[in-house]
C-alpha cells in the first residue's frame, strides 16, 4: 500500500467536487471527521450508481462497510472548495477496498486520505455473494494495479 501522505491528485481516476458548508465545521473551525466519512460514502455510492448500475433500493446485492480508516494531514474548513478523488485498491470476489483523497481546489497533495471496504451481500439473506459482472467491470476502471496502468478502461 502506498503511504497515503505521498498520494497526489493524479493517483485518483474519479472525482467529485464539494463546496464545504458552514455546518461542516466543528467547534475548532475545521471540517469534522464525521463529514469526511459522509463524503467517502457519497463518492463511493455515486460511482456505484452512475458507473456500475448499482441501485441501492433494487439491486440484488448491496455493499456493507466492514472496515474504515482515515488519516488527516491538513485542516479543511468552510468555505473551502474540495475535490474528492476515488480509487480501488483491492478487488476480491465479494469485497472491494476503496481509497478516497480529499483535496483543496488547486492543491496536488491531499488534506485527508481514507477509505473503507465493502463486502457485497444478498439483499434479503445478508449472505456474502460475488460482486456482479457490471459492478466488477466498473470497479476495475478505478483499480490501482501496476499491471493495469497502461491498459484501456473497461467498457461497460
TrEMBL record:
Q: Does the keyword Hydrolase apply?
A: yes
Keywords for the protein's UniProt record, in alphabetical order: Hydrolase
For this protein, the record's SUPFAM superfamilies field holds: Thioesterase/thiol ester dehydrase-isomerase (SSF54637)
What Gene3D superfamilies does this protein's entry cite? Hotdog Thioesterase (3.10.129.10)
Q: Which residues form the Thioesterase domain?
A: 29-106
**Highest taxon in the source lineage:** Eukaryota
Give one GO molecular function term.
fatty acyl-CoA hydrolase activity
Q: Which family does it belong to?
A: Belongs to the 4-hydroxybenzoyl-CoA thioesterase family.
UniProt protein name: Thioesterase domain-containing protein
